[in-house]
Structure formats: structure tokens, C-alpha cells
Write a structure and sequence with these properties.
Helices cover 70% and strands 0% of the residues. The protein has helices at 2-36, 63-69, 78-107, 114-126, 129-139, 146-153, 167-193, 197-205, 210-221, 223-238, 242-248, 258-267, 274-301. Helix 10 runs antiparallel to helix 13 (274-301). The longest helix is centred in the first third of the chain and has 35 residues, at 2-36. The protein is globular.
Length: 306
């Protein structure tokens, strides 16, 4: 062991600051959140040095988890919000991948102005998310938005997109797709360029159609890249807060996903319920860990080393 550290001390010295930062900014709040989920801490029971008030919250065990998982509306109607979160995540990631793959295949071909198209398609990713969110919020405006103006010009109904209806969820999914496609396109384009061109030439000589080349060469060649971007996209989308909050302009029950409800319980209301918010945070983390583990196991069965 002494020889090992003597040989690799420099690497550990370089890694140590990162470990310390992660421990302070990530692990410590995570442990604190897990602890709070087993208490009844809220605005009234937390310590307040300004008011010279000591902490009075108590350990309640699994009570918060039982209350949340019971589906009680007073605790956020967990299962309904979970279904909405899954719809939001699946729809966003599905269209991210499908549209991103289609654009990557097109840009991988020799076409005039390919460099310009790449720059234009990356712009939604380069623009700060809050600017895109505010722009789309104005576009979805029921009275002055360009989307309803276009619908009205062709004789179609002009709905209230960001009102108290399921159309609000459709609207934020559209915005999230707009923001997420460039990343997926760039990642898949890199994967496409790593596939040897000789495979396509050999398949074409053998008489394979374009669909057969895509199914038997392109998709298998992108499997490792696809598995990574889909996993990352799922985690990012599942925890997406800024897009929904900024586009809807605050709290909208029809766009409330798990992370939005955790934010509401932590920062909103007369008595901020830190315990329930922490419970939601732990449940979100648990769901993502279960998904990542199952996803990795499924990839291993398919022969992927990941």
C-alpha cells in the first residue's frame, strides 16, 4: 500500500480538491436531505437564530414516506404526479432521440451548406435556457402569440396553451424538445462519423436497401452512444425544473412533475414543509437509481459493456 501511494500520490493530489468540492456541495446536502425526510422539520420547527428559536423538529421514522406513497392529495397525490412525470420524460426523450437521429443522419451526408445547417441547429442549445423559455412563453400566448396567429390564419382553433389544461403539458414538452434535440443530434452525429464507411459500401454492393443499411449498420453502430445519451437525457429530463417553471410562469397543476412539487413544498406556502420536500427528493433519487440500474442490466444482456 505504501508503494502504491508513493507511486500515485500525484494523481490523488489532483483528485483531492474535486472530492472535497463534491463532498461539500453534493454529498453533505444529500445526507442532510435524507435525514430531514425522517423528521417533521418545517418553517415552524427549524432553528431560527434571528428569533432566538431552537429547533423543535422530531424524528418520525417512515411516516413521511407512508404519507406520500399513500397518494393523499394533501401530500401531493404522488402517483398522479409520478405518471405525469413519466409522460413528460418519455415524450421528451423519445422525440429528442428520434428527431436528433434524423437530423444527424441528414447532416452526415455530403450536402451543400452542411456547416451552416449544423450551426443553425446547434443554436437552441447555445442560447441560455431562460431566454428560450421566455421566447416560447410569448409564442404560446393565447392572444398575441405567433402560434395562435398562425392557427387562426388557417382557420384552426386558438387554444389557451398555458392555461389550466393538459395543453400546458404539451406546450412545455414542445419547448423541452426544442432545447434538447441539438445535444442529441451532436452526440449521434459523432457516433455516425465513427462508423467505418466501408461497411456501407460493402452493404450497397451486396444490394442492401437504404432501410436495411440503416437497420443493420447505423443502429448497431450507434448502440453505445445511444445508450449513454438516452440515459443522460432521461435523468436530465426527469429532474428538469427551469423549463417548466419559466414557461408556465410559476405553479401550474397540469405541469407539476415530482421536482416541481418538491420545490413547491420547500419554498411555497405559509409553513414550508422541508420534511416532505426532502422525502420527494429521496424518492426522485431512488427512482432514477432503479432506472439506471435496470437500464444498465438490460444493456449488459444485449452485450454492451457499460
Amino acid at each position: 500500500m505504501r508503494n502504491f501511494f508513493a507511486r500515485h500520490w500525484y494523481a490523488y493530489a489532483m483528485v483531492l480538491p474535486v472530492v472535497v468540492v463534491i463532498g461539500v456541495l453534493v454529498l453533505l446536502p444529500l445526507v442532510q436531505g435524507v435525514y430531514y425526510s425522517f423528521t417533521n422539520i418545517n418553517e415552524a420547527t427549524i432553528a431560527n437564530p434571528i428569533l432566538d428559536r431552537p429547533a423543535t423538529y422530531e424524528w418520525v421514522g417512515l411516516t413521511n414516506y407512508l404519507n406520500v406513497l399513500s397518494g393523499d392529495p394533501s401530500y401531493g397525490n404522488f402517483w398522479a404526479v409520478l405518471v405525469r412525470t413519466l409522460v413528460w420524460t418519455f415524450a421528451s426523450v423519445f422525440f429528442h432521440y428520434v428527431i436528433g437521429l434524423g437530423l444527424a443522419v441528414l447532416l452526415n451526408r455530403r450536402i451543400a451548406g452542411r456547416g451552416l445547417y449544423r450551426v443553425l441547429l446547434i443554436l437552441p442549445w447555445a442560447v441560455p435556457a431562460f431566454i428560450s423559455a421566455f421566447a416560447w412563453k410569448y409564442m404560446f400566448n393565447a392572444q398575441y402569440g405567433i402560434i395562435n396567429q398562425l392557427l387562426g390564419s388557417i382557420g384552426l382553433p386558438q387554444p389557451v396553451w398555458l392555461g389550466q389544461s393538459d395543453l400546458a403539458l404539451v406546450a412545455v414538452i414542445i419547448v423541452n424538445i426544442w432545447l434538447g434535440v441539438p445535444f442529441m443530434m451532436v452526440a449521434l452525429l459523432g457516433g455516425l462519423q465513427s462508423i467505418p464507411g466501408e461497411l456501407y459500401e460493402a452493404a450497397e454492393i451486396d444490394g442492401a436497401s437504404a432501410w436495411q443499411r440503416f437497420r443493420n449498420i447505423t443502429l448497431p453502430g450507434l448502440r453505445s452512444v445511444s445508450s449513454t445519451v438516452v440515459l443522460l437525457g432521461t435523468i436530465w429530463t426527469f429532474n428538469m425544473f427551469a423549463v417548466i417553471y419559466l414557461v408556465t410562469g410559476g405553479i401550474n397543476p397540469n405541469t407539476r412533475i415530482l421536482v416541481i412539487y418538491a420545490f413547491e413544498r420547500f419554498f411555497s406556502g405559509a409553513s414550508r414543509d422541508y420534511a416532505i420536500a426532502s422525502t420527494y427528493g429521496v424518492l426522485i433519487l431512488s427512482l432514477l437509481l432503479v432506472f439506471a440500474s435496470g437500464y444498465r442490466r438490460a444493456l449488459r444482456k444485449q452485450g454492451e459493456v457499460w
